[in-house]
Amino acid sequence: MSIFAPNGPMLVTGGTFINNARLKKRSNRHRRTIQESFNGHIALDATHDTNSADNSRCHPGTRTAVLQTLDDWAQNRSAEDSNPSHILWLFGPAQVGKSAIAGSFAAAQCKKRRLAASFFFPPKSRTSTNGYGFEKYLIPTIAFQMAFNIPELQPHIAQAVENNPMIFHQSAETQVEQLIIAPILFLGTSPAFRVPRTIIIDGLDKCGDQEAEKRVLAIIADTAPRLSGRIRFLIFSRPEPHITTTFNLPALKSITQSMDLTDDVNGFNDIRVFLKNGFKQFRAARGIKSDLSWPEEQSIELIVFQSRGSFGYARIALDLSQRVRAINKVPALIFFFLT
Length: 339
What we know:
Helix content: 40-55%
CATH superfamily of the largest domain: P-loop containing nucleotide triphosphate hydrolases
CATH architecture of the largest domain: 3-Layer(aba) Sandwich
Oligomer: single chain
Radius of gyration: 24 Å
Order of helices and strands: EEHHEHEHHHHEHEHHEHHHH
Largest sheet: 5 strands, parallel
Low-confidence stretches: 1-8, 127-131, 331-339
Number of helices: 14
Strand order of the largest sheet: 4-5-6-3-7
CATH topology of the largest domain: Rossmann fold
Mean pLDDT: 83
Shape: elongated
Number of domains: 2
Structural class: alpha/beta
CATH class of the largest domain: Alpha Beta
């Protein structure tokens, strides 16, 4: 029996007729529903690939060991495979490079199509002016990204907002249940999750207030085990007492792997690489070819030692020393500017 396609492409499988044009139209409708419904409810500058000034990247050749550890964890290739963690908490003090690592890792995961979503909290000084807030933006921004990073979720997320137009005015717990958990579970063992996808949250300590930050962790503690094998959570923050205490609670501690960035044995060498490359670029830009003795090796080592793993300190030292061409004065100058 011959089968003729009417005015357009048609796929025939096992006697079932599927009009490709109809499928495409339906897919476009889902995307349009999501774009229109989420408009005004997401933080446009909070993802790793937007124009936000906070979305920095690691200096080339640095933090390679840390990034590899994160990649192994994200793919369940870590040394703890026998008891895989749903959450990885990477913590460290200010200016140690957490956001740069988060941005670099998010970009790498996105390129490999393993990223579910990313959310970078801005500094608290900008929270009120930019209007970022946990309750209003975090969950919708993550769900919106997931709809486009994992297209298979689109019909289910679109259905969620159609069924509940009030979703963006409801609690974060309700939002995560209807916009993230239910759509993912509906897919079952979809090939979309052949490799776990990662949700990256940077700057949790900038969320707003301590109660909001603890609430984020409570939601993640409830969500992560339910999405085991599909979604993993990577969280970056300072080790604030209330955050540390929350991570030590049984509900989180049993499913979390912690990573102290100050324990990175390659941290000092990474800063050394950063400084040497910076001075090399400075000499090239200024046409300094014969003055290769500047800066002296011992001067660089002094900055490396005094940085104590802080890229912020190293960055200020590099900038000041280039301005004054007297690197031996840099420690005193940094003390003056930072006090």
